[in-house]
Amino acid sequence: MNSEKYSRQILFAPIGADGQAKLLQSKAVILGCGALGAAQANALVRAGVGTVRIVDRDFVEESNLQRQMLFDEGDARANLPKAVAAARKLRQINSDVRVEGIVADADSSNIEEFIEGFHLVLDATDNFETRYLLNDAAVKLGIPWIYGALVASYATTMTILPGRTACLACVFPKSPLGLHETCDTVGVIGPAVSWCAAIQTTEALKILLVRESELHRSLVSCDLWTNRLQQIKPAPDPECRVCVRREFAYLDQRASSHVSMCGRNSVQIHQSESRVFDLAALKTRLENFGPVLANDFLLKCSLDPYELTVFPDGRVIVKGTQDPAVARGLYARYIGA
């Protein structure tokens, strides 16, 4: 261990040299690599958490750069997947850490594979469906996970220890109904990202160091603009479908073939059946219809007023609509049903 690299952290009494050695043997998964995920990954890698796995389905865009600290204009111009761009930056920051960047959409068919064998999971997703899926998988496998969400200047987080604390389904038995504000409709400020990620990663370090008595054990919310801070200590629900009845509905359901993407005027299409694309062949076909940009990780075709981003694993993001029927029609026309 390069003790000089972590000298200031080792001086912090709750960590020390023994704690630093423990962190270097620890393994964490970050689900999502937008604003929250990038901040979480940056903090954990710099802290010397030995293995950090990043799972993300998206690619870098210029609008990300205001708050997503691991990316730059070159990543946006190159249309790099966020998991790839983040992993490259993080390996330059700390060569002690094994960083895995996985370009994939977490769903019921793969989420257990992504998190099994790891010590904890940090939530950096952008929708409740994926969080309920993560909650099911984490409770089933007994893996701690740390919920986090933010929009505008407001952020909230909660640490979940399966079997010992309330789980997400205890606190939110059903997904919130109606329209929800998103970062693309009301914006988001960087300090809200930093606040939420700081709470999440501090909780993560406590778990990895087996200092669970020092966890806040609350649903913590803060609006940094209006200076409002709230802490609620949720009790486990004795009738919870997940942590009591162990009914893993989100794990058991078949993965959806389409999902709207967090206010981005986009729909992701992912066929239920496994499908792999030859991007070189697809590039030749799509060049007949509009300009195509391609790299080793994805292909992007402009079909005014729409844009198709195609990944080798069979996923396609259709930008320019929030209507699944329109997105699937474009998919069938240009990619093939």
Q: Topology of this structure?
A:
Elements: H1 7-10, H2 16-24, E1 27-31, H3 35-47, E2 51-56, H4 73-77, H5 82-93, E3 98-103, H6 111-115, E4 120-123, H7 128-141, E5 145-151, E6 154-160, H8 168-171, H9 183-186, H10 190-208, E7 219-223, E8 228-232, H11 249-252, E9 258-260, E10 266-269, H12 279-286, E11 292-294, E12 299-303, E13 306-310, E14 316-319, H13 324-334
Helix pairs in contact: 3-10
Jot down its keywords.
single chain; 337 residues; alpha/beta; Rossmann fold; TATA-Binding Protein; 2 domains; eight-stranded mixed beta sheet; 13 helices; 14 strands; globular
Word description of this protein:
The chain has helices spanning 7-10, 16-24, 35-47, 73-77, 82-93, 111-115, 128-141, 168-171, 183-186, 190-208, 249-252, 279-286, 324-334; strands at residues 27-31, 51-56, 98-103, 120-123, 145-151, 154-160, 219-223, 228-232, 258-260, 266-269, 292-294, 299-303, 306-310, 316-319. The model has no long low-confidence stretch (mean pLDDT 90). Helix content is 33%, strand content 20%. The chain folds into 2 domains: 7-252, Rossmann fold (3-Layer(aba) Sandwich); 258-334, TATA-Binding Protein (2-Layer Sandwich). The chain has 13 helices and 14 strands. The N and C termini lie far apart (53 Å).
